[in-house]
Write a structure and sequence with these properties.
alpha/beta; Rossmann fold; 11 helices; 9 strands; 34% helix; carboxylic ester hydrolase activity; serine esterase
């Protein structure tokens, strides 16, 4: 009986999977020659056609306009006020990783209108340090065992030992503390503090909530004397990579942004029809973006923005984005182009990114440019290779 049920279940799963695949194949274009012509909004032209030529006007006019465009059309509003943030150190171990690091497990609680959100932070700080230490903060969208504080379980997704050995601190929180990654459950978290977001057309959803959480963790890190809060890099993979970009765009305290395989509505261009589409992402993950974003399903050309503008809004801070060679769903070429088009904003700060005209070869990282990039050989994932390049990138740019 059980066997029959299991068989029926796997059959159902397979049928659903192949249905999804068929739908993807129908919708997603993987043929470069079939990418239709498209026009991107100019980063340095306002919606009222004003040319932006100076850093001052970028900061005063265009950058806020871009952030507002993303709030209103894509990620939703980012509530900035709350009644109270408190924290407590749940566990501290000065002898973690055989004495190489201090472990802190911190519970951060944010209260607003008598509702609260609790964020569980895992933090390792190198024991040998000269002073406050720069840190990498991962928005963890995969299993919690990836950031195991006991280090019984180790994972390339968050290679804490490798980062500690490089002299940096490493931290992580799990997305489920802010908004469970589920079409129904996502409301149980940050959105309980801001229920008005649920009815607004440009209301925050899960990705916004995760980015909001990253900022609250940074609020804590600013109070931790072992951390150099002016050097905190926000890191995310895939859906977490979309959130890391949004966090860095909204919160200029993040010194650096590392966005791994973030793809559609992450670092990749939307007007360029290759790989995942807005219709697909909004259909499968209706809880990620503002309600208004659905207006652009099968209607990319109507978007008053594109993702190169999101990347540009991070200027002049160092930004590193990645792809994986087999992850065409995330459009490696469209990701590189997006990064390249963001250069103009960096130039306003006198920072020349000098990216090549076409994407670099597989496993050829660009790390000296403030707009770093690599296309790792392999599948959609966050690996030790990616992290070793993040560390290298941080080394280069924190030295400047
Ligand atoms: C996929 C989604 C991508 C990406 C990915 C992930 O199913 O289509 O945009 O976010 O999930 O997060 O691993």
């Amino acid at each position: 009986m059980q066997y029959v049920r299991r068989f029926a279940l796997s059959f159902l799963l397979l049928a659903t999977l192949s249905q999804l695949q068929a739908q993807n194949a129908k919708e997603a274009n993987y043929d470069e020659s079939k990418v239709p012509a498209y026009t991107l909004p100019d980063i340095l032209k306002t919606t009222t056609n004003q040319d932006i030529r100076t850093k001052a006007n970028w900061e005063k006019i265009r950058r806020p306009e871009i952030i507002k465009l993303f709030e209103d059309n894509v990620y939703g509003q980012m509530p900035k006020t709350f009644d109270r943030l408190t924290y407590s150190i749940k566990r501290e171990d000065a002898n973690a990783m055989a004495g190489k690091a201090t472990l802190k497990e911190v519970l951060i609680e944010v209260v607003h209108h008598n509702q609260s959100v609790k964020i569980n932070l895992v933090l390792f700080v190198p024991t040998k340090r000269k002073g406050p230490t720069p840190a990498f903060l991962l928005i963890n969208n995969r299993g919690k065992d990836n950031t195991d504080p006991t280090r019984v379980h180790k994972s390339e997704f968050w290679p804490a030992e490798m980062v500690i050995d490089s002299g940096y601190a490493i931290a992580a929180f799990h997305v489920s503390d802010l908004a469970p990654d589920d079409t129904v459950q996502y409301v149980n978290g940050v959105l309980q503090l801001y229920p008005e977001q649920l009815t607004a057309n440009n209301g925050m959803r899960a990705i916004g909530a995760w980015a909001w959480g990253a900022s609250r963790v940074l609020d804590y890190l600013e109070k931790d004397a072992t951390i150099d809060a002016k050097k905190v890099a926000i890191v995310g993979h895939s859906r977490g990579g979309k959130a890391s970009l949004w966090a860095a765009a909204e919160d200029q305290r993040f010194a650096m942004c590392l966005s791994n395989c973030s793809g559609n509505t992450g670092a990749a261009l939307s007007h360029r029809r290759f790989g995942e589409t807005i219709n697909r992402i909004n259909t499968v993950f209706p809880h990620w973006f503002a309600r208004k974003y659905k207006k652009f399903n099968n209607n990319e050309d109507a978007l008053p923005l594109d993702q190169h503008m999101l990347l540009a809004s991070i200027a002049p801070r160092p930004l590193y984005v990645t792809n994986a060679s087999k992850d065409l769903w995330a459009d490696p070429t469209g990701t590189f182009l997006s990064l390249k088009y963001a250069q103009k904003a960096y130039s306003l700060y006198g920072v020349e990114a000098n990216l090549p005209v076409s994407p670099p070869a597989i496993n050829q990282p660009i790390s000296k440019s403030p707009l770093g990039y690599h296309n790792r050989e392999g599948e959609h994932n966050l690996t030790a290779y990616d992290w070793s390049n993040f560390i290298q990138f941080a080394k280069v740019h924190y030295k400047k």
